[in-house]
Amino acid sequence: MAAKYNYVEKKVYGNWNPAARWYFQKILEKAAGISGVEKSDTVLDFGCNTQELKKHLNFKFKKYVGYDLIEELSDIVDYTKTKPDIVFALNVFEHIDEKELRKILENFKKMKVQRLVTAQPVEHSIGRALAFLSGLYFEHKHIHKLRWFEVHRIVSDYFSLEKQKTFMTMQKISLWKAK
């Protein structure tokens, strides 16, 4: 097992803290629930991590493709070569600067993505406490380049907000439709 993969697994879905594991699994569950994925859909899990989302979709899709910068986690090298109906980008966009995010969203438009599901942390004291307890806070506090409302402002230039849910006041989970 590669060192990077082991790091991701231990810090997120395999976290030593059961509350943190539950929290991350619930985000996937809520995102799957809001998505409206159908048997005819091709799904792109953008920033797929360990592809845990696939389990939460209960295989209610035609094809699942996981894409991640960590090659061992990714099914493909170039996400722009896929033709997904729906893209999941869960806890990804806040780590990307605005210029790069706009490039990604422009690619999604060129790929004719019809639906986009996003999740971003709402940073406040409860969220920081959970991050601290899970061991993520000290390692990741400096890597959020955008806040959730900045991500939403940028995404809204390319997609229309269809539905939004707030999970435990700490996550904004949103379904977007192509404009």
Total count of strands: 6
> Helix amount, in percent?
25-40%
Helix-strand pattern, N to C? HHEHEEHEHHHEE
- How would you classify the helix and strand content by structural class? alpha/beta
CATH topology heading: Rossmann fold
Total separate domains: 1
Based on the coordinates given, report the CATH architecture.
3-Layer(aba) Sandwich
How would you sum up the global shape? Answer: globular
CATH class: Alpha Beta
- Share of residues in strands: 15-25%
The radius of gyration is: 15 Å
Strand order of the largest sheet: 2-1-3-4-6-5
Main sheet attributes: strand count, strand direction, barrel closure: 6 strands, mixed
Account of the 3D structure:
- This protein has seven helices and six strands, in the order ααβαββαβαααββ.
- A hairpin with a 3-residue loop joins strand 5 and strand 6 (171-178).
- The protein has one domain (3-178): Vaccinia Virus protein VP39 (Rossmann fold, 3-Layer(aba) Sandwich).
- Helix content is 37%, strand content 22%.
- With 179 residues, it is α/β, with parallel strands linked by helices.
- The protein is globular.
Name its key features.
6 strands, globular, 22% strand, 7 helices, Rossmann fold, alpha/beta, 179 residues, 6-stranded mixed β-sheet
